[in-house]
Amino acid sequence: MSGLSQAHSVVAPSTATRRIAGAIVIVYALVTLIPLLWIIATSFKTPPDSIAYPPKIVFTPSLEGYVNLFTTRTRQSPEMLAQLPPPTTWYDKLVRSRNMVIAGPSNVIPRFVNSIIIAFGSTFLAVFLGTLAAYGFSRFRVPLKDDLLFFILSTRMMPPIAVAIPIYLMYREIGLTDTKLGMILLYTAVNVSLAVWLLKGFIDEIPREYEEAAMIDGYTRLQAFRKAVLPQAATGIAATAIFCLIFAWNEYAFAVLLTSGNAQTMPPFIPFIIGEGGQDWPAVAAATTLFVIPILVFTILLRKHLLRGITFGAVRK
Amino acid sequence: MSDQTAAPRASLLSRFLRLRRGPWENLATILIGLGVVMLMQPFSATAYAYSFITILAGTAMFAIVSHFPE
Amino acid sequence: MTETTTSSALPEKLAGATPEVIARPIRGLSDKAIAWFFIGPTILLLLAINIFPLIWTIWLSFTNYRANRPNAEVKMVGLDWYHRILGDGDVWLAMQTTAHFVVWTIIIETVLGFGLAWLIDKKFRGHGLWTTVILIPMMLSPAVVGNFWTFLYQPQSGLFNYVVGFLTGIDPSSFQMLGSVRLSPWAIVIVDAWMWTPYVMLICLAGLRSIPDYIYEAAEVDRASPWRQFWSITLPMALPFIMLAVLFRGIENFKMFDMVNLLTGGGPGSTTEVVSITLKRQAFESWRTGYSSALAIILFVTVFGLANIYVKALNRVKQR
């Protein structure tokens, strides 16, 4: 249905209706963006500016939040500071102006690396397993198929805290507590259910004739799967991977209960970025901004497939 | 597929109950819904106490009746 | 169902109809064996990470085990924990808190989400772009969202208090969204509505777009008023989609943990202690593993039951 034919339809909304509808939606969109924009703005404020009253909309941008995010600092007396050699870099200078010196790097980079390793590791595994299973469910007669598919879906809906109790005990027994491998396995298990359902939808849409033709040409089932199905499913696999990546990137409940340092990811780490006397809001905002940017990119990449993703592949437009 | 395998059994029991999926599934849905309301309502402690068994019964019933023929 | 039957039979038929050399690679493995090769690994993983722990939880819920005393003697207590929980006023209260949260978020998100979808469906210029913009909040991490909303809710410097003060004339430092018994249940509702209205909107939009134009054209021929068209065409035909969104938001918010844990941690006191927070406190702070396992099973069964209904709703939508 093209836009042109709808414009001529008797039921097409009038121009005025459209303009009013558009205006309301745009106002909603802008209002709903304010919290996020405010956080991004806060990441460029100084600590005093970030908690000023009335809230500062116009301010002098500063990178103090980002410097504080990546470093740990100690407060020094002015006499001590005077004895030190002059600051060599812009961030040294910035920290000195607050009567502090940089003591070392903060934990944010290891946490970010953990987030990346765990998100990509679990996504890879979930999509790999999910593609195989989805193909199996799509093309073969599997005993108790509907029950298995429901079981797979229901594992994703389980309350994370309830799942965390036995997982905590199990991981303690086998030494996976606070390890990246443990988190990767756990996120794979949660993500594989989404991957199976989504990919089954995508693979169902690929005509069987491709593989059947390939098999008549002498390919085995596996070769046909690799040569005829996988290339056709590439877009679907990519979209599924991004959904899995977003879930693993954003996950908090398991991370906060099952990791404490070695395998801690960003979501449980961000709320505990503290400065002197409570949360260091510009640094928290800086971490949030850096954490959210990949998500914004993914959202734009995924916009055509979002509906499928949130309905487990049931609604396809 | 499932129609064929289950058809003889249904005809055998249909004198007592028409074992069709639709109405039974609706009954199970109502039972689960009722249980959830009982679990979360602020009025009766007795209803709260029996909520779990209601949900459990509804869920078990759903699992069974979803294998009945359409 | 019939689809599956023909497909699994087809390779066999082809194999039978083709010379032996070509048939062998197709027949190399039986279809059943190949199917398990594809599905097996996923099932194994889920058995190890979901089903085995679930069975363990069921067993624990009948014992007095405490995770912080792994060497203590484990005694079977039968259904004691279930009796306790289902007679425990605090858990009941947590359920009611959860109900307040679930009911209000669903009402607000459905009304706003459906309204937005209805407006977007008017297809004004640039609606695709603005739809994507609206969707941003639901893609963020609930934990990070909870965290930065605590900043917006700061009584003195927070943007939320300032805007409310600016619009209503109330002194922004005179109320605390997160610290007050009266307001904190609404604070979490507001954040959830901000975050998840787009979700409901997106599903409702799919519902509205699934209504074929000819129905409206027929109604137009019958001179049905726009009001009547809305109530007798638009709403009933979008209803399965609305139900789908409501069910999913209901399940998600029934087990809501991340956002509430970071916004209020269940406080002040236990005014926002939704049931997941109770479960976390019992399991990971009081270490009453047996008790919390029983509570976990109650939540499991509830979600499992609701998931059955959800899948039924999914299938209904899929037929469109």
Automatic annotation (TrEMBL), chain A:
Q: Does the keyword RNA-binding apply?
A: no
- Return any one Pfam family short name: BPD_transp_1
Q: How does it sit in the membrane?
A: Multi-pass membrane protein
Highest taxon, organism lineage? Bacteria
Taking every annotated instance into account, which residue ranges of this chain make up the domain ABC transmembrane type-1?
A: 112-302
InterPro entries found in the cross-reference section: BP-dep_ABC_trans_perm, MetI-like, MetI-like_sf
* Localisation per UniProt entry: Cell membrane
Gene Ontology CC entries for this record? plasma membrane
Q: Does the keyword Transmembrane helix apply?
A: yes
Membrane-traversing stretches: 20-41, 116-136, 148-169, 181-199, 229-249, 281-302
Query: Which UniProt keywords are listed?
Result: Cell membrane, Membrane, Sugar transport, Transmembrane, Transmembrane helix, Transport
Q: What is its main location?
A: membrane
Q: Gene3D superfamilies recorded for this chain? A: MetI-like (1.10.3720.10)
Q: Name one GO biological process term.
A: transmembrane transport
What family does the Swiss-Prot or TrEMBL record give for this protein? Belongs to the binding-protein-dependent transport system permease family.
Q: Output this protein's name.
A: Multiple sugar transport system permease protein
Provenance organism:
Kaistia hirudinis
From TrEMBL, chain B:
Q: Can you tell me where the transmembrane regions are?
A: 24-41, 47-68
- Record bears the keyword Transmembrane: yes
Keyword set, alphabetical order = Membrane, Transmembrane, Transmembrane helix
Name-wise, this protein is Uncharacterized membrane protein YjjP (DUF1212 family)
Q: Which organism is it from?
A: Kaistia hirudinis
UniProtKB/TrEMBL annotation, chain C:
Name-wise, this protein is: Multiple sugar transport system permease protein
Q: Where is each ABC transmembrane type-1 domain found?
A: 95-310
| Membrane topology, from the record | Multi-pass membrane protein
Q: Which PANTHER family match?
A: GLUCOSE IMPORT SYSTEM PERMEASE PROTEIN GLCT, TREHALOSE TRANSPORT SYSTEM PERMEASE PROTEIN SUGA
Q: Which GO terms describe its biological process?
A: transmembrane transport
Where is this protein primarily located?
A: membrane
Q: Which residues form the signal peptide?
A: none
Q: Which InterPro entries match?
A: MalF_N, MetI-like, MetI-like_sf, Sugar_ABC_transporter
Annotated TM spans: 34-59, 101-120, 132-152, 186-208, 229-251, 291-311
Q: Which taxonomic lineage does the organism of this UniProt entry have?
A: Bacteria, Pseudomonadati, Pseudomonadota, Alphaproteobacteria, Hyphomicrobiales
**Native source species:** Kaistia hirudinis
Q: Which Pfam families match?
A: BPD_transp_1
An annotated GO cellular component of this protein is:
plasma membrane
Keyword annotations: Membrane, Sugar transport, Transmembrane, Transmembrane helix, Transport
Provide the protein's localization: Cell membrane
Similarity comment: Belongs to the binding-protein-dependent transport system permease family.
